[in-house]
Amino acid sequence: MNGRTLDEDLSAAARRQGDKTVLVTQQRSVTFTELDAAAERVAVGLLALGVQPGDRVAIVLPNSVELAEAVYGVMRSCAAITPLNPTIKAGKLSQLLEHASVAAVVCDEERAEVVRAAVARSEREIPIVDDLASIGSRRDGDRPPHPLDSNLGAVVYTSGSTGEPKGVTLTQRNMTFVADSIIEYLEMNERDRILCLLPMSFGYGLYQLLTCVRCGATLVLEQGITFPGRIVGLLESEKITGLPAVPTVFQVLISLKGLAERELPHLRFITNAGAGLPAATLAEVRRTFSGAKLYSMYGQTECQRVCYLPPDQLEVRPTSVGIAIPGTELWVENEEGRVARPGEIGELMVRGSHVMQGYWEEPALTADRLRPGRWPWERVLATGDLFTQDEEGYLYFVGRKDDLIKSRGEKVAPKEVEEVLHSLPGVREAAVIGVPDKLLGQAVQAHVAAHAGHELDPAALKRGCAEQLETHMIPQHVILHTALPRTANGKIDRRSLSGKTPPQD
Hints:
Number of helices: 14
CATH class of the domain at 1-181: Alpha Beta
Strand order of the largest sheet: 11-12-13-14-15
Structural class: alpha/beta
Helix content: 25-40%
Radius of gyration: 23 Å
Number of strands: 26
Largest sheet: 5 strands, mixed
Shape: globular
């Protein structure tokens, strides 16, 4: 592991292998030298706008060269990145901009209208940068400050069971530790060429960029899997060595006829996170990509990566999510606060340099998740997830302690979707749950009852959600009820709802 900050990674790579391509997109490719120069320009431009070290800068961009320029430009200014889903709506964006007290927003022309609408709701002046190519011009004396690994590196938003946003605060040291650990267990090197179909607005996708730059590899960027045939072509033409994905992506790929017969001699590893692969899908993925090692992984925004299953253990324990990533310690803790016995269900605890500093401006939530550690200055992470551990220390995911839904590799808070449903005409009550789905991991399922005299249309309810929610939060199924079932104490009986069969819509 090296002691460079993430920004220093880029500068070092530019000096060492400046003419090498670091990013490949459908529109253009850039070298390490070009990305380094762009980061410098963005940093200078942000400083000229008044951004100070430690400030938060929101990034609302799809996978693109511009997103990479923004990430490294913000970090070079010694500010912290706040990456946000590019499909975010103005209402939620406004809420997050205020919560994090962002100093600026970086976006593109396509998202500028939404960003302007969000910024207009603020009482503060928040500069908007919607054209990175025009930002920044060096003046005498302009120079970004020297980075420190103790600097705030990112405030990454995740939702809890209440649906309220939580800003996970990470230092540069938190983030470089994770990157180094991933590089180590995946055995990444500068010869790697990674294909990223995952949005870099959340951790799994973002770390594809950070690890590639840190080890001098090349990242081939796509904005999703809309055109699966193109993805297969890229695996071949770009000589891809690593493919990170979530179950949704794998389901699409393994459905392609003839892919298993294609020779992909360069592909040496594939990774899965976001949700576990069902047994049948896992077997088909291994058959389709028979020449590549498959790493099953588990993580949380609060520390990004927790554990991985070494590929040689897939046959032995296919349902396990593995062991601690290098440099960390994990254990399962029972309700009495003691280390659980093998096979005993308990909460997973995480110790290591990747554990977050806390939730932004949320001391009570921070105290709930960060517990006293071995040393007076140390805190360990209580994940809130239930696991068991076998005799040899391998972990098995049991379930979540709250009602969070994980769909398309991203977290969905039921309350947030329910609030939107309740705002739609005619809706009297609504409950949202997650149900198993081979493609999505979990599908968002909405159960809705109407006010007297109203008739509800499931398709119209979906459209109403689409106007206010990000794509992964829109219900896949809407089931209508005369009244929602309730428990003896008057609460909605979510357990009985989970057995309802969705309509064929």
